[in-house]
Structures are given as structure tokens and as C-alpha cells.
């Protein structure tokens, strides 16, 4: 947040809106066309924004700052994706509701160590296997809620927006120190909801025949040497100097993991680079096109929000846009907005005078990221695996109607009333 204030032309918000709108709607109305052309669209719209900043505004420093944030973001998400893909968890047995709750709770904890992307990619396939043959859409939805989003709100590497905040100067342990009450409440309520649903599903599911399918659950872990590479990645998060060393360590760990992991482990995980490739391409466009949006919000936030908008407004505004767009750029947008209300980019001043507002932005971005398939990067990775496994999943609006509104929205309301309503 050290770059000079820039006021872009409002028309330059259009590429950002077009890209996010197409990400939301194109897969529904023209899925095959989108798969073939999403890279051209994302990179093309990003190129428009880059050309405007480099040739029109001569803001090369701003572009360099954005490029560094993108490189750090992709290095973390990509390295966790590759290393987690080298660990195979084999589960046998018919999971009970209590076993499922324990698994989801463990996944919510692990998300803070591996990041929501790493935890989701590591655990989604064993989650599906342990619930065969009764796995349904709500199993995937609550996995998205807990492992791919809400669970990762305790550390700066837990969820992409929090890592971007760390890159902007938010202290690493500030998140854990301040977000744990919301984490406990959000995870607890979601697990209670899931248990009630899964108990009904379990009692209605057909029983296995005597002597078949009744073996106790057996856990087998392969590729545990990758724990070393995970430790390298986590240690690299704290490396700040020299520039580029953090990203180099992460990429080196990913390469080491990929080339030392047995092919049988990758095959068992159905590992391929398509999910992270899609994330890298789409976020390249998002990071480029969101520059005008972030700068425009930062320079006009004081006029829009007033002198003291309150934590509740930040929670709902950040959250709703995180669900409709993507929580990583939305977090940065409202961090810029918060800075704009006090005419300062100093994180220390934000933490001193607007700690509750920053907390509301952080929790709103992470929790609301679970509301849609595009709210957070891991969401559509999880959906892609579910589709591959032939698990029927609702459409984009169907997910909101069937799962977000009846289950996630009550949690968001309770969190708002308890922590941010005042």
C-alpha cells in the first residue's frame, strides 16, 4: 500500500467488471466456449488495463507493485497445490456423521497451515471416498464452507485475501489473535448444521450387506516426505528479504515435491495442473484489471462511506462483493477504501484506529467467499473434482439457493450480530 495515489478514468473499471461477470455467467450459458477461450479473455482484458497504466498513466511503479503481489499470491497457492497433490490419503469404510464432523473440523484446522487451496486439494478426494456411496451435494457444499473458506480464517496463509493483507503489512499473528472468536462460532455452527443433515442422510442410506462394506475405517498416508516441502513453504512465508527469495523458496519446494513424489501417488490423486493453471490465468487478468478498481475505490472511499462507516458496513459490503466477485481482490479493494477514509496508507495507523473495521473486512472476505463457486479460488477447484467424480452439483444460482441462503446466511447473520453490529 505504498504506491502513490492514482485516480483512473472510471471507464477503466469496465474490464474488471466484464471479466468477473463472464467468470460468473459464461460457464452457465456457454460452458464449452468458456473453457476454450477463458485464457484469451482474461489475459486480453488484463492487457488493456496494463497498457492504460503503462502508456496512459506512465505508472510503471504501480504495475510493478501489482506484479509482485500476483507473483507472491501464485507462488503460495501454486506451491501448496503441488505439494498437497503429492500426499495421498486412502480411506476405507463407511463414514458415520460423527466421523464426518471430525474430518471437517480437522480440515478447518489444516486449512490454516496448508491454506484453503492446499487443504481442499489434499482432502476433497478422501472426503468423497469415505462417504461413498451416499455422498451428495451437501457434502461438497459444507466442505467448501468449512475447508475451502471459513476454516482458513486463523492465519495469514489460511486464505488468499488474508495472505494479500500480510503482503500489504498486516502482521502475521494479528489474524490469529483477533479472528479466533469468529472462527470458533462460524465453524461450530456449520458443523452442527452438517451433523443434523448428515444424521438424516445416514439413517436413510441403505445398510451394507452383512460381511461386506462393514470393515472399520483404515487410514493410509502415502507421500509423507512432502511434509518437508510443506515446512519449507510455511517457513518461506516469513522471508521478506531479499526480494524474490520467498517466492523462489516456494517454487523450489514445489519442484522438489513434484519430481520426488512417486507417480503412483499422483495417479491415485488424479493429480494434474489444470486447476492451478486456470487459477493462474484468471487471477492474472483479475490482478491486472482490478488495479483501476482498487485505485478508484481508494481515492473515492471517503466520499462514499463517510467519515465513520462502521464495522458492520465493511463486513456486509466486503462480504457481498466477495461472493459476487472474488474475495481476494475485494479484500484489497476495501482495504484501500478503509485507507481512503483516513487518507493514509499506513497499516500501523489502521491497526491503531480501525482495528475492528479491518477485522470486519477480513472476516467478511473469508466467510462470504464460501457463498458462491467464484467467491474463492478453491471453490471451483472442489467443484471440478466433484464433477469429475460424477457427484451432481447445482448451478451457480442453484448453489446459492440450495446451500448458501439456508445454511451459510444464518451463520453470517449471527457473526454480524455478535461481533460487528455495534
Task: Outline the structure in words.
The protein is mostly helical. It has one domain (10-29, 37-204, 222-420). Helix content is 73%, strand content 2%. The chain has 17 helices and two strands. The protein has helices at 14-29, 31-56, 60-84, 97-130, 137-146, 160-168, 172-204, 226-236, 245-260, 263-268, 274-305, 311-324, 327-342, 347-353, 355-368, 377-388, 396-420; strands at residues 88-92, 218-222. It has a two-stranded antiparallel sheet. Helix 3 crosses helix 4 (97-130), helix 3 (60-84) runs parallel beside helix 9 (245-260) and helix 12 packs antiparallel against helix 13 (327-342). The relative contact order is 0.15.
What are the salient characteristics of this protein?
mainly alpha
Query: Percent of residues in beta strands?
Result: under 5%
Number of domains: 1
The averaged pLDDT comes out at 88
Strand element count: 2
Write the layout of secondary structure elements.
Layout: H1 14-29, H2 31-56, H3 60-84, E1 88-92, H4 97-130, H5 137-146, H6 160-168, H7 172-204, E2 218-222, H8 226-236, H9 245-260, H10 263-268, H11 274-305, H12 311-324, H13 327-342, H14 347-353, H15 355-368, H16 377-388, H17 396-420
Antiparallel strand pairs: 1-2
Quick take:
The chain is mostly helical. The chain has 17 helices and two strands.
